[in-house]
Each structure stands twice: as structure tokens, then as C-alpha cells.
Amino acid sequence: MSIRFNTVQEVLENYKSAIYENDVERFISAFDSDIHIYDCWGEWECTGISLWKEIVKEWFGGLSKEGVLLKTDFADLVIEENSNLAFIHCAVTFAAYKESGEKLRQMTNRFTFGLRKVSESWSITHFHSSLPISMETGKGIFNLK
After folding, report:
1. What is the mean pLDDT of residues 41-52?
2. Which domains, from first to last, does the chain contain?
């Protein structure tokens, strides 16, 4: 799937809508083939689009199995960009809903994106999600904001 992202904001809107619609191909289309990811779910890092696509398939598959719609919202969004590079940091909230509209759960964590423009289209080249850690328990703190 080849989608052009003319603005950084289009990349973010695609991120949100592809998650909500559980569309793996559209979600993956915003990431560079050499993507480098630091995520907070089980692995230290992920490199390359093939591995990232498998992780996303598993994530979206779990949502489908559970019958969950996942709404994504960005808060405290800061975008800095020039003609070929962009840097984004924000708080991201994922809220899971049943198809009936009943809210099941939500979590918020911190995201940083690095993007570059290639052939007039923006793509995510680096992605980092994190949580603050409780000094008392050693566990991640969700929904601090």
C-alpha cells in the first residue's frame, strides 16, 4: 500500500484512524522500511518494517479477537519540523471501547516520533514510547496525566 503523507499532521491522523479501523497495511504505510522503535511492551527494540508489521498484526489481531475498538488521542502535542525532518513528542491515550460504546479501559504513555520526508512524503523513521516508573514498585505508571 502506497500512501503519500504531504504533512506531518496527516501521518498522525493516519496513525489514529488506522488503529481505530484496525487496518494493518494503512498503519504500516506511515513507517519507513528501516524503522527503529523503542517500545515499552516486552522487547528492548524493534528494527525494520517486517518485524514491526508482525508486531502490529499481533496487536490488531488481539483487539479484533476481543471485539475492541481502540480510540487514540494525542495531547501536549509538539511538532518541530523543517523541510525534510520532523520531531514530535506528546502524550498518547489509547481508550478501548466495546462496539456498543462502553468504555473498557484506557492508558496513556509518552511518545516521540522522528520523521523524514522522502520523495515529498513524510514517514516515521524512529518511534519511542515510554512510561514513568514507580520508584516504590518498579512498575510502569499508566495514566499519570
Report:
1. 87
2. 8-130 (3.10.450.50)
